[in-house]
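Hi F.,

I've been meaning to write this up properly since the lab meeting, where we talked about keeping a consistent format for the predictions we share between groups. The idea is simple: the sequence comes first, exactly as it goes in, then the structure tokens exactly as they come out, then a line or two of notes. No screenshots and no reformatting. I'm using this chain as the first example so we have something concrete to point to.
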Amino acid sequence: MENKEHIATAKGENLSISRKFAVEVTGFIRGRTLVDAKKKMEDVIALKVAVPFKRYHMDLGHKRGSIGPGRFPSKVAKEILRLLNSAEMNAQNRGLDIESLFVSRAVANKGSTQMKAGRFRGRHAKRTHIEIALAEKEKKKTEQKKEKKTK
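Output, unedited:
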């Protein structure tokens, strides 16, 4: 497990978005740098980049390029971009280096269900919990040795 001093998190609970779409988008940004993840989310909102669907892809058409089945879940992308910005601000408050941050953890879970009106049996509203954690990349040993020599 990484050192908690070098991690900044942001959580969104009971967001009114699709859990299946959120699972695909969080898998799309996991492991990316913060700058790259934010750029990808802005491109998804602008319908420039499709999110490849790897799990929930039944009857889903392929998109341009080599990604295979995909969609443009812009509502989910807006919420995740908001959480990325919030995690970035939390990282700044902790004094982390913004340039070396990457998305170490991005998880979407099922939220509480809320009944909505329906003609006969009612419907359940979609709710999703999302957790995003940003971590600093560790410096390589050669960079650490150079820093020690300069001191």
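Notes:
The mean pLDDT is 89.
DSSP finds four helices and seven strands in the chain.

If this format works for you, I'll send the rest the same way.

G.
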